[in-house]
């Protein structure tokens, strides 16, 4: 029987990291899909926090 797998991933919509259920696995291209429990969005998992930090850095580009 299939077992449920979860993955910690960051959701940019919910702006938080949570335990997401792995809903799909495309081994041919090495892509994983996870579902966010907050917004029910399905997307490839993001490493936690790092994306938010990168956003802060990119903000500096608009600073004069
Ligand atoms: Zn979400």
Explain briefly what this protein structure is.
The chain contains 1 helix and 4 strands, in the order ββββα. The chain has 64 residues and is α+β, with helices and mostly antiparallel strands. The protein binds zinc ion.
Q: Would you list the SSEs in sequence order as H and E?
A: EEEEH
Shape: elongated
Q: Into which percentage range does the β-strand content fall?
A: 35-45%
What's the gyration radius in Å? 14 Å
Largest sheet: 4 strands, antiparallel
Distinct helical segment count? 1
State the strand order across the main sheet. 1-2-3-4
Annotation, overall tally of beta strands: 4
What's the structural blueprint in terms of helices and strands?
Blueprint: E1 6-11, E2 16-26, E3 31-35, E4 42-43, H1 50-59
Antiparallel strand pairs: 1-2, 2-3, 3-4
The structure holds zinc ion.
Q: Which characteristics define this entry?
A:
64 residues, 4-stranded antiparallel beta sheet, elongated, alpha+beta, binds zinc ion, single chain
What does this protein look like?
The protein has one helix and four strands. It has 64 residues and is α+β, with helices and mostly antiparallel strands. It has one domain. A four-stranded antiparallel beta sheet has the order 1-2-3-4, with no helix packed on it. A hairpin with a 4-residue loop joins strand 2 and strand 3 (31-35). The N and C termini lie far apart (58 Å). The structure holds zinc ion. Zinc ion binds at residues 11, 13-14, 36, 38-39, 41.
């Amino acid at each position: 029987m299939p077992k449920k797998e979860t993955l910690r991933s960051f959701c940019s919509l919910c702006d938080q990291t949570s335990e997401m259920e792995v809903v799909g696995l495309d081994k041919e291209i090495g892509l994983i899909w996870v579902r966010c429990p907050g917004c029910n969005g399905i997307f490839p998992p993001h490493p936690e926090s790092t994306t938010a930090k990168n956003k802060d850095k990119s903000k500096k580009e608009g600073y004069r």
